[in-house]
Amino acid sequence: MARRKQKKLKLVAETVNGEDRTGTEDGKDRLELQTWSDLPSELLELIMSRLAREDKIQASSVCKSWHKVAVSLRVVNQSPRLMYFPKYGDLSEFYDPSERKTYSVELPELHGSRVCCTKDGWLLLYRPINHLVFFFNPFNREMIKLPNFELSYQIVAFSCAPTSTSCVILTIKEVRPTVVAISTCRPGASEWATVNEENCLPFVGSIWNKLVFCSGMFYCLGITGRLGAYDPKKRTWRVLAVRPPRCPATFFAKNWRKGKFMAEHDGDIFIIYTCSTENPIVFKLNRSGSKMVWEQKQTMDGMTLFASFSSSLAITKLHGSMRNRVYFSKVRPFGKRCISYSLHDRRYYPRKKCYDWGEEDPFANIWIEPPPQNASSFI
Predict the structure, then answer these.
(1) How far from chain centre, in Å, is Cα 160?
(2) Mean pLDDT score of the chain, rounded to an integer?
(3) pTM of this prediction?
(4) Which of 110, 152, 221, 331 has the highest local Cβ count within 10 Å?
(5) What is the mean pLDDT of residues 366-377?
(6) Which residues touch 300 (CB under 8 Å, ≥6 apart)?
(7) Residue 126, Cβ neighbours under 10 Å: how many?
(8) Helical packing angle, 41-48 and 64-72, nearest 10°
């Protein structure tokens, strides 16, 4: 038996080294035509984003294409944290999607309150039992109280961190189909100012509307796709002559009012329409022409969107594997991966199935920007 095995191995070796040598050499010739510089940039970004700083420096000297990718990854911002509010007790959780880790911290200051929105690392919260409205920074425990105000069924946004003298808080509530009540306040003020404004065009007020501050203006997306704008300096409100985004009819089925998100970045406004049976659609408001128009985006040019019901964020210069994606406010229990949608691959990760984001608890969590690295012990 041993001799038969030796003969078979000898025949195999002769075949490989003899008859198939030409084929092997041809394969080597073909492989030699490709070099390391031919690696796709997306793959290089994924690899280099996981390298230590010293290794990135060495990799950047390999060739021009590697250097270009390494340079694009040198300035990397922190990803936001997904903050979970406890149903019972005071233990809040912060999920980091870049590291897939969760940190917990006791925040008794938030007991009995509901999150309204977030910006620049600050939360704006409302305590229904006594109508207390206040800012809270979960990273340094700083609290700034505002005059009491009822915020039961309206959307809220603020322009910048409450430590700034230019901070303005805005809330919009429907009075009747043609009239909205606009209330504003500033940190340090003794009361809220409220005025009723007529709508020149149809505009439906709802808690499902979206509100952001961009380039000195507050923009409000109605549930029907209409866009309203409020100028805090002139104290004027108007419904803009902007046609609603074009979406397939399937997007206006179940939970169509809830499955929308809105974010701003550097003078640009983005909205995300979702559907339980279709992939999400991202639109950007083009304000460069004579008429403003919503344009569908096939790529985010390296930007990343973080969508949650109360506030959504747009961040640039994240790790390569996180770019051109929309991260939603849901983390899978197994693997601790945040559910995201890749505009490049046109699919959800980690699973390909679609999600009905309108069924999620709108006040269970929110994306929040952390302070600079090493500024807090738990993030």
Answers:
(1) 18
(2) 85
(3) 0.81
(4) 221
(5) 75
(6) 282, 323, 324, 325, 343
(7) 20
(8) 60
User: What token pair was written down for 96?
Assistant: 């980091």
Torsions phi, psi of 160, nearest 5?
Answer: -160, -175
Please name the residues in contact with 204: beta carbons below 8 A apart, sequence gap of 6 or more: 174, 177, 222, 223, 224, 226
User: Strand order in 132-137's β-sheet?
Assistant: 114-119, 122-127, 132-137, 142-146
Helical spans, DSSP H, in the chain: 2-17, 21-32, 41-48, 53-59, 64-72
Which residue in the block uniquely carries the two structure tokens 């039961």?
152
Measured CA to CA in angstroms, residue 188 lies from 9, 130, 144, 182, 256 at distances of 87, 19, 9, 19, 38
| Joined tokens for residue 82 | 């997904």
Determine the Cα–Cα distance for residues 329 and 85; give it in Å rounded to an integer.
Answer: 12
Task: Give the number of other Cβ atoms within 10 Å of residue 155's Cβ.
Answer: 21
pLDDT at position 375 is: 47
Distance CA 42, CA 191 (A): 52
Closest of 108, 42, 104 to residue 73, by C-alpha? 42
- The sheet with strand 304-307 has its strands ordered as 313-315, 304-307, 325-331, 338-342, 347-349
Residue of 133, 136, 82 lying closest to 108 (CA atoms): 136
> Confidence band (pLDDT; 50, 70, 90) for 21?
very low
Residue with tokens 């040019």: 301
75, two tokens: 């300035």
Residue 8 buriedness (CB in 10 A; 0-12 / 13-18 / 19+): exposed
How far apart are the C-alpha atoms of 99 and 101, rounded to whole Å? 5
Q: Which of 117-121, 161-165, 321-325 is the least confident region?
A: 321-325
Return d(Cα 99, Cα 336) in angstroms, integer.
Answer: 9
CA torsion, ordered 184, 186, 192, 194, to nearest 10 deg: -20
Tell me the residue length of the chain: 379
- Does 112 have pLDDT greater than 70? yes
Residue 304 and residue 49 in contact, taking contact as beta carbons nearer than 8 Å: no
- pLDDT score of 347 more than 90: yes
